[in-house]
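Quick one:
INPUT:
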């Protein structure tokens, strides 16, 4: 590893075609056995589980919670699987990044770890909150929607990339010297 927690040079990467085929197979399996592939519903499933664990019967009377699975199903395991899979992929390719504050963030906002983590948490919370209000998540709409050739999946995918580019331009714009 280089000094200062810098990114290691990757040893190898999965071919993008193979990765796309594997993702497509997972998506087809999800749609055939359950429905749209997505993970934001897992937070609601976990909430329902915790409510039942503590003796609450709100799941049966709340129309939103009653529509969620009563137990953890295989689709629930996608969330921890993404974390574990991401870690294993970084480990196998030698691309683990131990830097807490990326260089680009540091040059624009400073090297405060609490500020960086608070911004990441706030962004993640807003994304999840918006996903649950919309009744689904970005991965569900883009992956499953586009995988089923739904116009909404393509439109939303293009919107995500466009808004991401605009946001990055605004956040990381060059400041005058």
């Amino acid at each position: 590893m280089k000094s200062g927690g810098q990114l290691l040079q990757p040893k190898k990467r999965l071919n993008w075609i193979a990765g796309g085929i594997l993702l497509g197979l997972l998506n087809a399996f999800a749609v055939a056995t359950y429905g749209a592939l997505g993970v934001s519903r897992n937070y609601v499933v976990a909430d329902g589980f915790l409510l039942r664990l503590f003796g609450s019967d709100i799941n049966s009377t709340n129309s939103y919670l009653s529509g969620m699975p009563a137990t953890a199903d295989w689709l629930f395991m996608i969330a921890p699987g993404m974390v574990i899979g991401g870690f294993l992929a970084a480990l196998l390719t030698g691309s683990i990044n131990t830097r807490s504050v990326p260089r680009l963030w540091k040059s624009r906002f400073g090297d405060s770890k609490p500020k960086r983590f608070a911004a990441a948490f706030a962004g993640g919370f807003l994304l999840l909150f918006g996903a649950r209000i919309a009744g689904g998540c970005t991965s569900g709409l883009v992956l499953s929607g586009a995988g089923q050739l739904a116009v909404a999946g393509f439109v939303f995918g293009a919107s995500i990339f466009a808004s991401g580019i605009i946001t990055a331009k605004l956040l990381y714009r060059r400041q005058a010297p």
